[in-house]
Design a protein that fits this description.
Distance between the termini: 11 Å
CATH superfamily: Phosphoglycerate mutase-like
Strand order of the largest sheet: 1-2
Order of helices and strands: HEHEHH
Number of strands: 2
Structural class: mainly alpha
CATH architecture: 3-Layer(aba) Sandwich
Number of domains: 1
Shape: globular
Length: about 140
Amino acid sequence: MSATILLVRHGMCAHVGKRLAGRSPGVELDEEGVRQAERLASRLGGERLRAIYASPLERTVASALPAGRRLDLPVIPCEALIEIDYGQWTGRDLAQMGGEPGWESYNLFRSGTRIPDGDFFPAVQARVASELELPRKR
């Protein structure tokens, strides 16, 4: 049996393009992000979804909730879908990271650069890919 999986990024929040939020708690959708979540719900309104999963972080759950309400589906928090752990980089201002060798390496070769005290991209890929296989088994 085949399954179609829609991967949707969370809506806009104040950190996007400015700071590495990663797994930081308390990062919420801004006004544009709330509008994006509502537009997503409208777009998905005619779809026949069986489940909605989200990272347990506030901004991802808030992005999924309008679609869940519209489709009468619960938003299921899924730890395997949580954002990358940016370790020592979490919360850092992106403009200040430009010259750092580790950051430059990460942006050139993510699969070969380990984040200081954080995730290793191949492990993130494996974690998410493993979770994406589960709907076929359910």
